[in-house]
Amino acid sequence: MPQLSSLGKSKAVRNTAIGIGVAVLVPVAVTVLAPYVRPAARSAVKAGLLAYEKSREAAAELGELMEDLVAEVRDELREEREATLSSVRSDTEPGADKDA
Fold first, then answer.
1. Residue ranges of E strands in 7-91
2. CA dist., res. 98 & res. 38, Å (int)
3. Keyword Transferase on this protein (predicted)?
4. How far is CA 21 from CA 9, 29, 59, in A?
5. Beta strands of the chain (E only): which ranges?
6. 60 in Cβ contact with 67 (< 8 Å)
């Protein structure tokens, strides 16, 4: 019997026993837990898809808002440039006739 007790202390034997135990118990656990895990997994995937769709909608709305904002700023800049050019032209036109 002393050999049996020393065999149980061996790391290789212990690791092999753990591996065999896991190999036997995992399929049993999967079979037992599958009816409960599948609905939970479906719910998680469903929630993920809903979150993805909502985030895409929010990103699209944000993109539209940014496009509108950029268009407004461009219009303001164009109007400011036109106002500046018209004031510069009105200031230089009388002087340009005298030089010519």
1. none
2. 90
3. no
4. 17, 12, 50
5. none
6. no
DSSP string, 41-61: HHHHHHHHHHHHHHHHHHHHH
Give the CA angle between residues 44, 47, 51 to the nearest 5°.
140
Residue 8 tokens, joined: 């149980």
Domain boundaries, the chain: 6-92
Spell out the long-range contacts of 10-16 with Cβ–Cβ below 8 A and sequence spacing 24 or more: none
pLDDT by 10s per residue, the chain, length 100: 446 566 667 788 888 989 999 999 999 988 898 898 889 999 999 999 999 999 999 999 999 999 999 999 999 999 999 999 888 888 776 655 555 4
Q: How many CA atoms lie within 13 A of 80 on its CB side?
A: 6
pTM of the model: 0.48
